[in-house]
Write a structure and sequence with these properties.
The complex is a heterodimer of chains A (85) and B (426). With 85 residues, chain A is mainly beta. Chain A has no helices and 6 strands. In chain A, a hairpin with a 2-residue loop joins strand 3 and strand 4. Chain B has 426 residues and is of the alpha+beta class. Chain B has 3 domains: 171 residues, 2-Layer Sandwich (Alpha-Beta Plaits), CATH 3.30.70.270; 63 residues, 5' to 3' exonuclease, C-terminal subdomain (DNA polymerase, domain 1), CATH 1.10.150; 163 residues, DNA polymerase, Y-family, little finger domain (Dna Ligase, domain 1, 2-Layer Sandwich), CATH 3.30.1490.100. Classes of the chains: A mainly beta (85), B alpha+beta (426).
Chain lengths: 85, 426
């Protein structure tokens, strides 16, 4: 199931043909490499446009990152965790 | 049907299990397995969308989560994200608009597209096939498409094959396919209307197409002959392109509570939050409404709708809340509620920030409302919320698919209070 988070994370990103592309990020001491951006969308919050990215890492892990231009800052908003029990 | 319409070609593009498919597209490990999109999965609520893998288990949209879990315990439950679905829906509309300027959004996951050049059914079918491939390539999503000479035929054809179906029909093909089917299969005929038709001996779409016009008019009024035309596959309803815009008929919000509640502060806070959201939308869209409706659903799933017509149009949070609260107090029997909703209808456009009510609001209140709206425009909806809605502390922003946390402290749950009249639920 997805766990909702609001964890600030450091993200290494690139701007490719005018599009923001997250490449890797550090979360809880681990560096997670982005294998593929599987989805992207945006949400307006007041005058700011937040960009969201669905991300798959090399081991099949699933995450959602949010780029908030105010700051600017990156937030890890969701992570898939396997159900236990 | 006019000669002009006989050559127009319309597509109805229906995204397959849209919300669930978006989650599967964005999260590859969810592909090929049952997925339910819902509100917060840790709370109770209903299934908003079920993937095609979940449907053989009997799970359907609208089903309570508890029942869905019993039917399909192995499914993955994903909290829905309306912002994501709306953003994708807009991207899909952009794709449709690259084919034709005549695109009419029908819902977040359906749209009509009228081809710019009138051609044959076979040509339209090929365009539809190409569009399906492009949707798959760009978004990894499936769509079922109906093709026909009218919105009616396209809409009904889109449901013939799912998922990723493509069905093209002219009027004779429509009649061959739908005439033997139950009359309720006709677009626009619901269970109650179908039951009345059956009582007149009209059981199939074909029988409706051949029923005497006078009989239909006598029993169903003006809609009777219209349904007869529809049953024959005839429809001249024009496409209303999205660039032309359609004014909404009503605006509303409703929430399924995380657990049945009879807590007065909690229910009142919920009503306040809903009223504030509705009024805020009215102001954002420069609309005002004259009818306030409250929807109450109890723990037995009995739903009650009560409305009041105001003496003048309003878009003020306080006014909407006052009326909604009065309706709630007059009609609630004090028993546990499962769902609450507030809707404002009979809308009309308002100019700028002008006053819509003659005496209802003083200048100071309006100035304050305008200032608060400016803060929300700048910082977002969650930046300011009514103090009375803080029974939802920490979850004050819009919550996807209508779940709000229940106030937890004991003092938030006072003794049940008597209300002015018993429920008049159906």
């Amino acid at each position: 199931m997805f766990e909702s988070l609001s964890d600030p994370v450091d993200v290494l990103s690139a701007c490719v043909e005018g599009r923001l592309e997250p490449l890797r990020f550090r979360w809880r001491g681990r560096v997670i490499r982005v294998r593929k951006v599987t989805g992207r969308w945006h949400r307006r919050e007041g005058q700011s446009q937040l960009q969201y990215f669905s991300i798959e890492d090399a081991s099949g892990g699933s995450y959602e990152l949010c780029h908030d231009p105010r700051g600017p800052k990156w937030i890890l908003s969701r992570v898939w965790v396997e159900r236990t029990g | 049907m006019s000669a002009k319409d006989s050559t127009r070609m319309i597509l109805l593009i229906d995204m397959d299990a849209f919300f669930a498919s978006v989650e599967q597209a964005h999260h590859p490990h969810l592909r090929g397995v049952p997925v339910m999109v819902c509100g917060d999965p840790s709370r109770r609520g209903v299934v908003t969308a079920a993937s095609y893998e979940a449907r053989p288990f009997g799970v359907r949209a609208g089903m309570p989560l508890g029942e869905a879990r019993r039917l399909c315990p192995q499914a993955h439950y994903v909290e829905g994200n309306p912002d994501k679905y709306v953003a994708l829906s807009v991207k899909l509309l952009d794709l449709y608009l690259s084919i034709s300027p005549d695109v009419e959004p029908f819902s977040v996951d359906e749209a009509f597209l009228q081809l710019a050049r009138h051609g044959s059914l076979a040509e339209a079918r090929e365009i539809a096939r190409g569009l399906q491939a492009e949707i798959d390539r760009r978004f990894s999503l499936g769509a079922s498409v109906g093709v026909g000479p009218s919105k009616l035929v396209a809409k009904m054809a889109s449901g013939v094959q799912k998922p990723r179906g493509l069905t093209a029909m002219d009027v004779p093909a429509f009649q061959r396919h739908f005439w033997p089917l139950d009359v309720q299969e006709l677009w626009g005929v619901g269970p109650k209307l179908a039951a009345r038709m059956r009582s007149l001996g009209i059981t199939t779409v074909g029988e409706l197409a051949h029923a005497p016009t006078a009989l239909l008019k006598g029993n169903f009024g003006i809609i009777g002959p219209q349904l007869k035309e529809a049953a024959a596959g005839h429809d001249e309803t024009p496409i209303v392109p999205c660039h032309r815009g359609v004014e909404p008929k009503s605006m509303g919000h409703e929430v399924t509570l995380p657990e049945d509640s009879s807590s007065i502060p909690f229910l009142e806070g919920t009503l306040l939050r809903l009223s504030d959201q509705v009024a805020r939308r009215l102001r954002s869209d420069r609309m005002a409404g004259r009818v306030v409706c409250v929807k109450l659903r109890n723990h037995r799933f009995e739903t009650m709708l009560r409305q009041r017509v105001l003496s003048e149009h309003t878009r003020e949070s306080r006014r909407v809340f006052e009326v909604a609260r009065t309706l709630w107090r007059e009609n609630w029997d004090g028993g546990p509620l499962r769902l609450i909703g507030v809707t404002v209808s009979d809308l009309e456009p308002t100019e700028g920030g002008g006053q819509t009510e003659l005496f209802a609001s003083d200048l100071r209140s309006q100035t304050l409302t305008a200032a608060l709206d400016r803060v929300r425009d700048r910082l977002g909806e969650a930046s300011i919320v009514p103090a009375g809605a803080l029974t939802h502390r920490g979850h004050a922003s819009h919550v996807p698919f209508g779940t709000v946390p229940l106030a937890s402290s004991p003092e938030d749950r006072p003794e049940k209070r008597r209300v002015t009249s018993p429920a008049k639920g159906r």
